[in-house]
Each structure stands twice: as C-alpha cells, then as structure tokens.
Amino acid sequence: MENHCQLANWNEVLANFKHLFGNLGEITENNSSIGYNSMKPDVETSIIIFKNGSFSAAMPLHGIGARVDTLTFTSTSLSLSGDNLDYTYKIPPAILLNNPR
Fold first, then answer.
1. Scanning 15, 21, 75, 84, which has its CA 20 to 30 A from the CA of 35?
2. How far out from the chain centre does Cα 81 lie?
3. Are 36 and 21 in contact (CB under 8 A)?
4. Is there a cis peptide before residue 93, judged by omega within 30 degrees of 0?
5. Which pTM does this prediction carry?
6. Residues contacting 13, CB < 8 A, separation 6+
7. Max Cα–Cα distance, the chain, nearest Å
8. How many domains does the chain divide into?
C-alpha cells in the first residue's frame, strides 16, 4: 500500500492515519490534530500531525518539528514532505512483531 494525500484533505489524512496505526497503540484525535502513541511493553514512540502542517515525532534518541504539505502512507511507514522537509516515520519492527496486522 502506498497512498499520497495532501494535508488540505484532512479527512483522507485521518482515514489513512487510522488505517496505518489502528491496532498498534493509542490513537488520539481532536479538531486540530491526530496522533499515535505506542503502548507498553512496545518501544516508546509517538507521532502527531496537526491540521496547520506542524508535527511532532518521538522515538528513542529522536525528535523533530517542521511543516507538512504532503503525506505518504505505506503499510509500515508515514513519509512527510514540505518546504525543506523530507521525513519518514517508520513503525518500529518490534511493534509490528508484537501486533500482527
């Protein structure tokens, strides 16, 4: 699966985000963002996409903040692109092993 969508199409972003992270941990959603947090005992990781184009991602020894225009969803990752931004969030393999799809 590879699905490109524009941030401006927020409903498509929500649907793809929920499909990618749906059974891997906790998904939080409100009027301005959607986020994923892993659950113990899995690797601690999270990512939040905001409707305004900002995002926050956290992995052990890893964090970033920037503006997003385009999102690309695959079966194991979420790539974010925008001005001076090319970032790929990969679901840790240990989470995928512990949570078969």
1. 84
2. 12
3. yes
4. no
5. 0.71
6. 5, 7, 34, 49, 71
7. 36
8. 1
In order of 17, 80, 96, the CA distances from 77 in angstroms are 10, 10, 11
Residue-level pLDDT at 82: 86
Q: Which residue has the higher pLDDT, 67 or 96?
A: 96
E strand map for the chain:
2-6, 25-29, 33-38, 46-50, 54-59, 62-67, 70-74, 77-82, 85-90
Distances (CA, A) of 38 to 49, 51, 67: 15, 21, 23
Tokens representing residue 40 in the block: 């113990």
**What values do phi and psi take at 33, rounded to 5?**
-160, 165
pLDDT digits (tens, 9 = 90+) for 48-86: 999 999 888 876 544 455 678 899 999 999 998 888 788
Write down the pLDDT at residue 1. 65
CA atoms within 13 A of residue 79's CA, in its CB half-sphere: 11
Domain range spanning residue 69?
2-98
